[in-house]
Amino acid sequence: MEFRDNKAIYLQIAEYVCEHILLGKWKADEKVPSVRELAVEMEVNPNTVMRTYELLQNKNIIKNKRGIGFFVDEAATEQVKSYRKQQFIADELPVVFRNIYLLNIGFDELENQYKTFVKENFNA
């Protein structure tokens, strides 16, 4: 995984985990990779993954079954959507709005681009 400089690595790993849940790659009550497994896959220190898992556990996205490992929470999809929506609205949307304003992009053009993106990337 290529990490960006503008955001903490553990938060980027959290985005990775959340995306896997939203895409249905990791389902409710399914075991997620162990801290060590994910650390090796991401090429990071296990403490970084542990920090990610603690964050996601506090957000009720994953749960720890002592001695067995971490599992996707039953309500993870809704929790992820809520968590990611809050992040997007607070962090990314202001930048998007600023660019829309500065570049004088109309909502019709934006809507067409969005529909094209969804069609090309999600076959909807």
UniProtKB/TrEMBL annotation:
Keywords, comma-separated and alphabetical = DNA-binding, Transcription, Transcription regulation
At the top level, the lineage of the source is: Bacteria
Q: Which CDD domains match?
A: WHTH_GntR (cd07377)
Query: Which SMART domains does the annotation name?
Result: HTH_GNTR
Q: SUPFAM superfamilies in the record, alphabetically?
A: Winged helix' DNA-binding domain (SSF46785)
- Its Gene Ontology molecular function terms? DNA binding; DNA-binding transcription factor activity
Q: Does the keyword Nuclease apply?
A: no
Q: Which InterPro entries match?
A: Tscrpt_reg_HTH_GntR (IPR000524), WH-like_DNA-bd_sf (IPR036388), WH_DNA-bd_sf (IPR036390)
- Outline the extent of the HTH gntR-type domain: 7-75
The transmembrane residues are none
Record's Pfam families?
A: GntR
Q: What is this protein called?
A: Transcriptional regulator, GntR family
Query: From which lineage does this chain's organism come?
Result: Bacteria, Pseudomonadati, Bacteroidota, Sphingobacteriia, Sphingobacteriales
